[in-house]
Amino acid sequence: MVFDNISHVEDCLKSGAPSVHELYAMWEQRRSAPDIQSGTSRRAATTGQIPWLDDLTLARRFVALAVDREEFLLALDASREVLSRWDQSNEDERTTLVRIYMNYAEALSRVGHTRTARQTLERLIDDDFTPKLGSGLKSEILVQLGSIWREESHYLTVREAELYASRQGLDCFRRASQVNPENEEALVLKAAMSFYLGEPGAALRQEAQADARLILGEALKRENHDGPRRRTTLAIAIAYTILEDVDKAADSYRKLAGMEGATTAELASARYYAQFYAQALGKPRDYFKSAFPPLDLIVFAGHLPDRPGAAARLPNSAIREARDALFKKLSEMNARVGLTSASAGADLLFIESLNKLHGTVHLVLPWSQDEFRRTSVRPYEPDAHNPIWEPIFDQAIANAATIREIGQVYEPSDDVGWDFMMEVSAGIALQAARALRLDIKPLVLWDGLPGRGAGGTDDFHSFWRNQLQFQPEIVPPPVDLAVKISRPSGERRRKCERTMLHQEVKTMLFADIVGYSKLTEKVIPDFVGVFLERVSQLAATSQNAPRNVNTWGDAVYAVFDFARDAGLFALELTKMIEEGRADWIAKGLYWEEITPHGNTQHPLSVRIGLHTGPVFLHYDPVVRRLGFTGAHVNRAARIEPIAKPGEVYASEEFAAMAELTSQFLRIEAGSPPAPELGFVCEYAGSMPLAKGYPGRHRIYRVVPRPGFALDTLAQAAHAAFCAEAEARGERRESNPSMRPWDELSEDLRDANRAQVADIPNKLRFLGYELATSHGMSALSIKVSDQEVEEMAALEHERWMAERKRNGWIYGPKRDNARKHHPLMVPWKDLTEPDKDKDRDTIRHFPQLVEKAGFRVRRLNEV
Q1: Does an H or E element contain 834, and which?
Q2: Using CA atoms, how far apart are residues 763 and 754, in angstroms rounded to an integer?
Q3: What is the DSSP letter of 778?
């Protein structure tokens, strides 16, 4: 559909069924919202742009559809642009924008940015938030917030932290039910979370089952009256699961899967959460998987058509049979979503077949679209006057849900470039499968013989099977193997000798020192002798040090063998510069801003850009040292200027290689928990690069992975407890908890872990949150006597709840064997010395945060 005016956009959005391709088409035709500070459009105006974003009803509909179609990156781009007008909106408009905030949070959560998603929603339900929300909308937001906490719990590998996040989710579902008792979704999710958290026979499990009986009775009545509905059927399936009637639960899931209108997204979500319910039942996580159809992201590769005189692999005479074979295989696989390139031959036949099955296709083009057409489609036409492949290519481009162009401009010149493209495509596939909650299934149209070179079907099959450990499905091409002509083995061999000028895949880091140009001449010696010396020390001592580093003026250029090292070093560099703020000011390494309230000193900061790609290693005859050059170096240099001070921006290729590294770490670990990558790539948006670099590019923000050194903190908390108890005159003989960590029972260790796992909640009570790099020292938090008293009472309630979950009850004397404890009483009934224990815990928790190496920031900080 062509979007020439706002009526076309309105008709398409209100039809309720625009394709993903149409959503992207109308997005490209938008007139961007103005930049509030500059008053100019974020995107240069071109003929034909339509100001449909000015209509908030259309904008809201667009964002909601993007989320519904699981195009989460598009939803994030659109939400950010629309929400930028919040400050200029009236109360009615803000009510509409609240809905867009909810879609924004959903998209953030689905791509893994749960912390930012929570922050987005928490401000909406604050008592001081305007406009005031009705009970129905507030209940919806609480349900969504609880779902995000639940999602976050599934990313956590430490049991205590997982339980904390799950309990926060349960609390949100309970509040949602209280705010609006008619919110059926809130009741279902409250019951499901209570079931997941409650041990068999425990009060929480009994509460869940009581809710499930209520849900089941109402749902069955509604089904008898209104007929089958997808939401009702899902509620019935969950209720039967909670009631431990697994056969009826499985039947309900099967019924849901067979219902008209059931989308891949709905089924994938239902299957995803069913695995956690199965776990709560004590069954394998995939127990209910057979109740659902295959829900796969099919990653495809296959043979190119034969050129005249080449060995027979996919001759033109076999095209129809190959198309039929692929269609049959995809039908058998119940194929719904695919990811592939769009080369002539098998790729285009795969796309054609999946479109015929009404599936969704995501394209990853190895280089620019026009060049790809010239190199990978047109040369394979048997008759230039009667093309076969180019019309299919045009249709594939027109129907594709998304099109990504890997950062190549031209076809790779050697094997390194081909391998890089295959690995980046694999990383993109892993990212997509995680966000869409789909399984990955590689599929090849392959004759089983070695390839003719790098990047072919043989390489694809080997890479997915041997390195990523996914077994590909194979569709043999319809060619009699007996007629194949012999050809040399496709095993690639490289001479031991090679020229100095050759390609290698590297990650480039470009850093710019923000504020350097405003320094006075007299402090330049300190800039070199102090600031750059610190950078030099870091580069020399870091475990993630670059292989090559250079500086000129205020710029740093470094090259790394691995994307993971580059990401970690970039975060180390930003942290080092941030933590040196006081030193930079003391040395005069700052610039001043004159404001009506006085002069503000801004110490030096840094912005960093990262990109991964093939570069040429060469000997530079001018400076007489090894260097790296090529188009990808230029690409990396264009990312740094668009980064914000103090932040690290990275290309989609870098993010894909990081995702691939995470998969390799999981494989090496063999079983969970796998080693952490150390950082996450948060989607920052689609944006142009600096200095007129062509196109718009998906850019990611590299941030430290949120974590909590639970055992380290638990040991520190226990040591503080022992010291305080000793200061009060207690002795080990009278208090068995006063013993070294290694001698504690596992029950007491868990109690310490649970105490420190609650630290984020204590920070929120005071208006702060954890920050892994930038922020203030936790020691600067001032806790008033009133806050100490309130938080100590809450700490006692938390301790009692944790003890009860582990089977402890009140007893006049402590009895570890029988799990009796004299402090299992309300706060008001405690003695002052016993209350002091909880007060000391509150007074000292900022020291624990500092000891763990965390910073904090206020919740209202952006």
Answers
A1: helix 832-851
A2: 15
A3: G
What is the three-class DSSP state of 507? strand
- Average pLDDT for the chain: 86
Amino acid at 709: A
pLDDT digits (tens, 9 = 90+) for 294-323: 999 999 999 998 876 666 778 888 899 999
**Which secondary-structure segment (H or E) carries 856?**
strand 855-858
| Separation of CA 115 from chain center | 11
Which ranges of 437-562 does DSSP label H, i.e. alpha helix? 457-462, 524-526, 532-541
What's the number of CA atoms in the CB half-sphere (13 Å) around residue 149? 24
The CA-CA-CA angle for residues 451, 369, 701, to 5°, reads 95
Strands 820-821 and 809-810: parallel
DSSP type of residue 816: T
Task: Tally the residues of the chain.
Answer: 862
pLDDT attached to residue 480:
54
The type of residue at 67 is V
Q: How far apart are the first and last CA of the chain?
A: 39
Instruction: Tell me which residue of 509, 340, 338, 505 sits closest to 408, measured CA to CA.
Output: 505
Token readout for 845 is 């928790």
pTM: 0.80
Nearest in space to 350 (alpha carbons), one of 374, 371, 333: 333
Q: Are strands 296-302 and 439-445 parallel, antiparallel or unpaired?
A: parallel
Q: Specify whether the CB–CB gap between 859 and 768 falls below 8 A.
A: yes
pLDDT band at 159, cuts 50/70/90? low
For the stretch 398-416, what's the b/e string if a residue is b when 16 or more beta carbons lie within 10 angstroms of its beta carbon? ebbbbbbbbbbeeebeebb
CA–CA separation, 658 and 668 (whole Å) = 15
String of b and e for 102-116 (b: at least 16 CB within 10 Å)?
Answer: bbbbbbbbbbbbbbe
User: Of the candidates 682, 606, 589, 601, which has an alpha carbon nearest to the alpha carbon of residue 646?
Assistant: 606
Helix H or strand E encompassing 373:
helix 369-376
Strand 548-552 and strand 555-560: the pairing is antiparallel
For residues 708 and 156, give the distance between their C-alpha atoms in angstroms, rounded to a whole number: 10
What pLDDT was estimated at residue 712? 67
Helix, strand or coil for residue 340? strand
Cβ contacts of residue 529 below 8 Å, gap of 6+? Answer: none
Q: How far apart are CA 807 and CA 825, in angstroms?
A: 15
Cβ atoms of 418 and 408 within 8 Å: the answer is no
H or E segment at 567? helix 563-579
Q: Give dist(CA 418, CA 115) in Å, integer.
A: 37
3-state secondary structure 2-53: CCCCHHHHHHHHHCCCCCHHHHHHHHHCECCCECCCCCCECCCCCCCCECHH
